[in-house]
Amino acid sequence: MPFISRLLTTSRRETPALMRLALPICGAQLAQAGMSVVDVMMTGRLSATDLAAVSVGASLWLPLMLFMTGTLMGLTPIVAQLLGGGRTEGIRPSVHQALWVALALGVVAALLLWSVVMPIFRLMEVPEEVASRATAYLAALAFGMPGVALFQALRAFSDGMNHTRPSLWISLVGLGVNIPCNFVLIYGGDGLTGLFGTGLPAWLQGLPALGALGCGIATAISMWVMSLTMFAYTRRARAYGDIDLWRAPSPPRWPLIAELLRVGVPIGVAIFLEVTLFTLIALFVASLGEITVAAHQVALNYTSILFMLPLSLGMALTVRVSNTLGQGRPEQARLVAWNGILVSLGVAGLNSLLLWLTAEPVIALYTHNSEVTRLTLSLVGLAMLYQVSDALQVNLAGALRGYKDTRIIMLITLLAYWLVGLGGGHWLGQVGLAGWIEPLGVHGYWIGLVAGLTVAAVMLGERLRRIGKARAHDTFEISRD
User: I need a surface site. Which of 168, 282, 285, 298 has the fewest CB within 10 A?
Assistant: First the structure.
């Protein structure tokens, strides 16, 4: 039967299974993003200085957390392949090694946040009061970094076991804890009195308003609540079959740790490179004026929300490909991978349609400035192209992670994002083509993003084509697999 016919046959039964995994992941991503939104909204209502402190602080701790998350995502294909192959006895020690790695990463991240932030703020020329409050915010939040790292390790285990709903519910628990803790710690007794009246106990009315520091404490509490809840769930739930995860802790085993790092570190680096790409573009765009900055942020914020579904689809595709490879069915894994790519194209088309239909009313929620609105709408047209290339590259990367082929993702990310995306975007935005095209401003950066993501999609697609075909014929060898 021709490949296309087999792909269409596979699609009818594979697509529902893929979406059942992806939708809870998407919900969890949105819930975790919601915590950042709540932090910004609640500190912004207290003062502009606290809002600036939390925003600047987030630009330091979020990349660290995403690097940890990416590294620990290496556990998902390991667990999924062991599960698919029926080698469940190897899952528990692999998870324990991931927990050792998570604890080490969390402690290192905390130490970095305690020790190096003030020199960075001085280098960035952050105003003294903002830097002082941001340092306090990060010092408090640092206590939560080991907790969130342990949560991400357990989440990677659960996802690899085809059980993605816990990450959704526990992320919602984290959001539910974050909101009241934020309220109490950011606004203190005055905020509680304004909400509930003067009938509160005196000790509650006397609580100080901690501002950005309180926001950091609340975030750290939420991180540990999510971690401990995930621990309790994995200990008691029957969804994990006969894997008694907490029967006896395994000491560090360097071969298993090395395998996790070999698969996971390139994922973490690739995510870190992507985050820093957008951070640097925001810094370059800042020189183009406040109208341009506002339009860029509105367009990017809206498209980032839409990106959650293709991102979640890519994470689910890693599980499906890994499971199928673990079952010893490389030809079927090839079909599963390319079916996921077709589904991602459909999702990208849906996102582009949503942009086209909802751009004006959604932008109106962000701003009433007519200049910002016009510029944002002009970026939305590029954002529609951006959806297609971004959905393709993130799902192609997800499929390759299922093959544990992660180093090539890191290299392609470096080339496509930084050389084509950032370099090309800066050239078009600030320099232009002498005698041909004048500098395009923010549009040049967005064209660079589209070009970089498209190059990444083409290169990752060729890699997946080669590796899938070769694996199906047992001729392609990746690292030690």
Answer: 282
Distance (Å) of CA 322 to CA 13, 155, 285, 312: 17, 16, 40, 16
Alpha-carbon span 266 to 335, nearest angstrom: 25
- In angstroms, the first-to-last Cα distance of the chain is 28
CA dihedral of residues 253, 258, 259, 262 (deg, nearest 10): 160
Q: How far apart are CA 421 and CA 322, in angstroms?
A: 30
Distance between CA atoms of residues 188 and 186, nearest Å? 6
**CA-wise closest residue to 337 among 450, 460, 452:** 460
Return the ∠ at Cα 273 (arms to 269 and 275), rounded to 5°: 115
Q: How far is CA 63 from the centre of its chain?
A: 10
Q: Which residues contact 251 (CB under 8 A, 6 or more apart)?
A: none
Buried b (16+ CB within 10 A) or exposed e, 19-35: bebbbbbbbbbbbbebb
User: What is the pLDDT, as a whole number, of residue 21?
Assistant: 92
Instruction: Provide the 3-class DSSP secondary structure of residue 431.
Output: helix
Q: Which residues of the chain have pLDDT under 50?
A: 475-481
In angstroms, the CA 271 to CA 63 distance is 8
Query: For the range 123-127, what are the long-range contacts, defined as Cβ-Cβ under 8 Å and sequence gap of 24 or more?
Result: 124/56, 126/56, 127/52
pLDDT tens, residue by residue, 375-402: 888 888 888 888 899 999 999 999 999 9
Task: Characterise 364 by phi-psi region: left (phi > 0), alpha (psi -120 to 50), beta (else).
Answer: alpha
- Closest alpha carbon to 420 in 465, 392, 388, 458: 458
* 178 token code pair: 């974050």
Q: Alpha-carbon distance 400 to 403, whole Å?
A: 5
Residue 423 corresponds to which amino acid? G
| Residue 143: per-residue pLDDT | 96
* In the block, residue with structure tokens 């994922």: 267
- Give the pair of three-digit tokens for residue 295: 């339009």
Please say whether the beta carbons of 457 and 391 come within 8 A.
no
The beta-carbon contacts of 472-480 under 8 Å, at least 24 apart in sequence, are: 472/330, 472/331, 472/333, 472/334, 474/330, 478/403, 478/404, 478/405, 479/262, 479/404, 479/405, 479/407, 480/259
Rounded Cα–Cα distance for residues 173 and 161 (Å): 21
Residue 138 in tokens: 């990060």
> Do the beta carbons of residue 100 and residue 149 sit within 8 Å?
no
> How far apart are the C-alpha atoms of 454 and 417, rounded to whole Å?
10
User: For residue 433, what pLDDT is reported?
Assistant: 67
Contact between 53 and 196 under an 8 Å Cβ cutoff? The reply is no
Distances (CA, A) of 189 to 53, 65, 194, 201: 22, 32, 8, 10
CA dist 376 and 259 (Å) reads 45
